[in-house]
Amino acid sequence: MSSPCILHLRASNFVGGPENQLLRYAESERRGPFQICLGSFVGPGKESEFLRAAETRGIQVLSLPFRNFGLQSALASLVRELRSGHIGLLCTHGFKADILGLLAARLSGVPDACFLRGWTRENKKVRVYEALARSLLPLAHRIVCLSENQAQRLMERRWAPSRIRIVPNAVDLPDSSPGEIARMRRRVRELFGFPLQCTLVASAGRLSPEKGVAVFIDAAARLRGKHPGAYFIVFGEGPLRRDLEVRAKRLGLDGHLLFAGFVPRLREFLHGLDILVNPSFSEEMPNIVLEAMAAEVPVVATSVGGVPEIAGPDRAVSLAPPGDAEALAQAVSSILRDPFEARRLAVRGRARVGLVYSLIRQRELLHTLYRELLSPGRAKIVRESVSPAKLEHLHP
After folding, report:
1. Total domains in the fold of the chain
2. Considering only CA atoms, which of 176, 111, 159 is closest in space to residue 370?
3. Contact, 344 vs 316, CB < 8 A?
4. In this structure, are 73 and 183 located in the same domain?
């Protein structure tokens, strides 16, 4: 008898932090007790980089239409897939997957788990859809949070406590030998045109308001006077790029701060950094923080969402208040002035990730969730009868 198939659904055309989480996890399950399938929504004549990356790794994929509602839509197609009996559990990631997935699960009678990866509130359209996704959360059989902080905030809702589970992000530990670090330090500086002996401080993430990159730029301007050997690099793309470039130029950072854009396989470059800064206003469980810690790079991050949990009781991350460029600059400066503090953070960070955020621990938590929802004794899920005409009229 074949093992149950678990579909993880995310609307994404690129491979960022959440997508890498799903890809790494699906790879680790190839010899596990569950079949893992990754799904996404693809427009006519287009291709999904996320699904292509999954196929390259030998992971089963499901491509759904990009259009949300109607007869030949993502919702109708997903309902048909769930009713086929091939998929035993649906896991959704992100507001589009949450909205369509929660509706399809209810219409097909398949259990579902909604993974909350945070709300960006990036623009008016996104805010509307995120609000709709939150309004549908009471339909979810399980709600998966990334951190204790996130779970506690949800616990205040009357319907939520019995449904909440916590499954943090996870990373593996890369080679951190002195030889590998020296090789990557040289490669990064040559690739991006920095002096070979410079100190390199980086930020990485989408260039959108909630990521706080403007605060990082303001902090970099403060650091330039105190640490003339420091250079700065911003990895990522997004709607604020042009505004941020203008801001950096106005602050006199030309030649000392580089916008590198979106860099595939960014994790490979982390060994080349001296400090990773995560200046976000809003986070739950930032992958880049975990990946930098795993690479034994000191991390300065704002104390938001689940970041204090990542730091842990030993303060494996240097924390600063969100939106405070001066405090951020002081935290970075303390590390640049004190090699022993830099080394302490690096070692504690790697140890913390290996202990608390390992792939093995994440798999165990996910397996517990799967068995709970797939067990014969789980709460009965009501199957609603739905006709094609009903689906045609499901418009926002």
Report:
1. 2
2. 111
3. no
4. no
